[in-house]
Amino acid sequence: MSDDNIVTITVELHGGPLDGRTTAVTLTEEDPWTAIPNDGCAYPGGSSIYAPDTRGRWVWQDDQPAGNA
Q1: 61 Cβ neighbours under 8 A, 6+ residues apart
Q2: Enclosing H/E stretch for 1
Q3: Is 23:8 a contact under the CB 8 Å cutoff?
Q4: What span, in angstroms and rounded, lies between the C-alpha atoms of 4 and 22?
Q5: Integer Cα distance of 6 and 26 in angstroms
Q6: Contact 50, 36 (CB under 8 A)
Q7: For residue 3, what is the DSSP state?
Q8: Could you give the CA distance from residue 57 to residue 52 in angstroms, rounded to a whole number?
Q9: Residue 67 has what DSSP assignment?
Q10: pLDDT tens digits in sequence order for the chain, 69 residues long
Q11: What pLDDT does residue 4 have?
């Protein structure tokens, strides 16, 4: 993929520990999700995983331990 196809947008997060917050997300065809470091997730030092649903809303998927996201 060329750099011309990479886009950064700001999205609102839905559900999970970061519900209602906004974050910048870099979109690529290979990576339709984002892992956000979050001390409030289920794993100390871990990340919360968000991905777009079929309507384009960025919805919480899971929490991952540090080093796994």
Answers
A1: 16, 33, 49, 50, 51
A2: none
A3: no
A4: 24
A5: 7
A6: yes
A7: G
A8: 5
A9: T
A10: 456 677 889 999 999 999 999 999 988 767 788 999 998 889 989 999 999 999 999 999 999 999 875
A11: 67
Q: CB atoms < 10 A from the CB of 41, how many? A: 23
Q: How far apart are CA 47 and CA 29, in angstroms?
A: 21
pTM for the model stands at 0.82
Paired with 19 in beta bridges are none
Q: Which two tokens stand for residue 11?
A: 């999205």
Domain ranges in the chain?
A: 3-64
**Three-state SS across 4-64?**
HHCEEEEEEEECHHHCCCEEEEEEECCECCEEEECCCCCCCCCEEEEEECCCCCEEEEEEE
Residue bearing tokens 């289920």: 42
